[in-house]
Amino acid sequence: MDESQAVWHSQTETPEVHHELQKKLSVANQLECSICYNTYDNVFKTPKLLECTHTFCLECLSRLMTFTPADKDGNGGGKHLSCPFCRHPTVLPQNGPPALATSHEVLCKLPNHQQQEEPVWLEGEKLCYKSFNQDAGSGAPDKLHQNLLLKCLFDKMFDAVKIQQVYWFNNGV
């Protein structure tokens, strides 16, 4: 019985090809949060900078803040965040993670419609934002009212997205 051996050869990359691949991978990694691996956006997944210059999405930093143990004065974990990578502490602004600096370096690499940061705020442990919903048929706001969507990520685990429709009537009703 004649036994033949298969020999496999791998093609080695030229330094130029390797550099281009590394550059593409680097840009791709910058566009996703290294905690949740979701792509950044301009609402709940806004890229936020810690003092150590590591960047994570707003939602992950809010979760991290929620589960940070109380300090020795008994205050709930809301004054400092420890970077998940380097453990460098970041002092949180009074308005929490939404008030941290946004990484405009990352934001400008997102699609054009996501390069303008949306206003997001904390209500207790909820991350919230408002967006005006255009009338689906005409593409223009309704003359009697504008449909205002209030979207909140809620619960300590941020398990769900709550969408509450509120109508803002132009006549003050």
Explain this structure.
With 173 residues, this protein is α+β, with helices and mostly antiparallel strands. It has 3 helices and 8 strands; from the N terminus they run H-E-E-H-E-E-H-E-E-E-E. It has one domain (19-169): Herpes Virus-1, CATH 3.30.40.10. The strands form 3 sheets. Strands 5-6-7-8 form a 4-stranded antiparallel sheet, with no helix packed on it. The protein has a two-stranded antiparallel sheet with strand order 1-2. The chain has a two-stranded antiparallel ribbon with strand order 3-4. A hairpin with a 5-residue loop joins strand 7 and strand 8 (160-169). The longest helix has 16 residues, at 15-30. Residues 134-147 and 154-173 have low confidence and may be disordered.
Strand neighbour order, sheet with most strands: 5-6-7-8
- Low-confidence segments, given as residue ranges, are 134-147, 154-173
- Architecture in CATH? 2-Layer Sandwich
N-to-C span: 92 Å
Top-tier CATH class: Alpha Beta
- Number of DSSP strand runs: 8
The helix content is 10-25%
Order of helices and strands: HEEHEEHEEEE
Strand proportion, as a percent range, falls in 25-35%
CATH third-tier fold name? Herpes Virus-1
The gist of it:
By secondary structure, the chain is of the alpha+beta class. Helix content is 17%, strand content 25%. It has a four-stranded antiparallel β-sheet, with no helix packed on it.
